[in-house]
Design brief:
With 362 residues, this protein is an alpha/beta fold. It is 40% helix and 22% strand. The structure holds nicotinamide-adenine-dinucleotide, 3-isopropylmalic acid and manganese (II) ion. Keywords: Manganese, Metal-binding, NAD, Oxidoreductase.
């Protein structure tokens, strides 16, 4: 029997609504597979907690999380608490403290009808964005001088260390090699004359170790065009923290929206727990209405299962997601359906049982 200890941080807005469905899926898997079990410990951290206690998480929160096998997070940030406080004291803090330097964000079109791109098919839109997740533009370094005065100057410093840049690029090359795909680096060396010139140099240097991997390099502005006009160019993409943030929302836009976009924040060395979460935020505009799409959060469960080495279950969950968006009308309004969050979760579990039997996962 294998047991995995999972820390739950449902967080804000629709975070708790979608995490509930992901947990349902894990509990259903536990019932179907007698060799697997999951235990859950929930932490009530987020903006409400902040308004009550003045803290986004407990002072020893990082230590409390340290021994879990994984963290499953909903969303963080809500009107009433400034975003730079809520995010820096919870989500970004966890990514940094646990050195989750790899952010794996698949951009995969599951059903042709979901893309706004005319004539693009499921074969055309299927790539993996590997986003640097520990430093770069998100280093949190900067200064604000002469506040409020006419000569005010604000600095936001990008930090690109050799170690940090090499390790993400090497990780991406390994991924491309392993899966026999091309690697595309997205950067901006023409304008960012320190950070991105360095990034491009490291791509060249590390690339010499991978002569078998076909490598492309695009400026982020041109890449944004190609992502819309020519998404079939991309297979594995490696990019910096901020560019990765932006292009993965763009990726969501061409594959059905944020309700279907997932991300794993991984510490590959497993020195610290990794964290699984949907790409979307707390969606204050639909929070509390029971219509949030839980599929992105359920896809994070698939990524978590892969990370645990339970790839057969990871695949069963992903196949079920695919069937669900292809074959049913049991979908939330963002995908054109009129189902409620909980009904999508329940129906997902019924389908997962059938998938598990069909692909003989047990
Ligand atoms: P958002 O992702 O919350 O919402 C953007 C749009 O997508 C909204 O119209 C929303 O209704 C829709 N949407 C998002 N997820 C959906 C889902 N599962 N089902 C259906 N529709 C969905 O982005 P925002 O509005 O810019 O940010 C809201 C708050 O969330 C802010 O405080 C922001 O900082 C925070 N945020 C947190 C995370 C995170 O925790 N990882 C990610 C992004 C934004
Ligand atoms: C994401 C989010 C976060 C990011 C924010 C909320 C800090 O947008 O996970 O994509 O920029 O990484
Ligand atoms: Mn984002």
């Amino acid at each position: 029997m294998k047991n995995f200890d999972i820390a739950l941080i449902p967080g804000d807005g629709i975070g708790p609504e979608v995490v509930t469905e992901g947990v349902k899926v894990l509990k259903a898997i536990e019932k179907m597979d007698t060799k697997l079990s999951f235990s859950f410990t929930e932490f009530p951290w987020g903006c409400e907690h902040y308004l009550k206690t003045g803290k986004m998480m407990d002072d020893d929160g990082i230590n409390k999380l340290r021994h879990f096998d994984a963290i499953y997070l909903g969303a963080v940030g809500y009107p009433g608490v400034p975003d730079h406080i809520s995010l820096w004291e919870l989500l970004l803090r966890i990514r940094k403290e646990f050195d989750q330097y790899v952010n794996l964000r698949p951009v995969t079109l599951l059903n042709q009808s979901l893309t706004p791109l005319k004539s693009k098919t499921e074969e055309d839109i299927d790539f993996l964005v590997i986003r640097e997740n520990s430093e770069g533009e998100y280093a949190g370094a900067g200064d604000r001088l002469f506040k409020g005065q006419p000569e005010e100057v604000v600095l936001q410093t990008g930090v690109f260390s050799r170690k940090g840049t090499e390790r993400i690029i090497r990780y991406a090359y390994e991924e491309a090699r392993k899966s026999n795909r091309t690697l595309t680096s997205i950067s901006k060396g023409n304008a960012l004359n320190y950070s991105m010139v360095f990034w491009d140099e490291v791509i060249e240097e590390v690339g010499k170790e991978y002569p078998d991997v076909e490598t492309y390099s695009y400026l982020v502005d041109a890449a944004s065009l190609y992502l819309v006009s020519d998404p079939e160019r991309f297979e594995v993409v490696v990019t910096s923290n901020l560019f990765g943030d932006i292009i993965t929302d763009l990726g969501a836009g061409i594959t059905g929206g944020l309700g279907l976009a997932t991300g794993a924040n991984v510490n590959p060395e497993k020195q610290y727990p990794s964290m699984f979460e949907p790409v979307h935020g707390s969606a204050p505009d639909i929070a509390g209405k029971g219509i949030a799409n839980p599929i992105a959060a359920i896809w994070s469960v698939s990524q978590m299962l892969d990370f645990f080495g339970e790839e057969r279950w990871g695949k069963a969950v992903l196949t079920t997601i695919q069937d669900m968006v292809k074959e049913t009308e049991m979908l939330t309004p963002d995908l054109g359906g009129n189902a409620a969050t909980g009904d999508v979760g329940d129906s997902f579990i019924e389908k997962l049982k059938i998938t598990a039997d069909t692909i003989k996962v047990k």
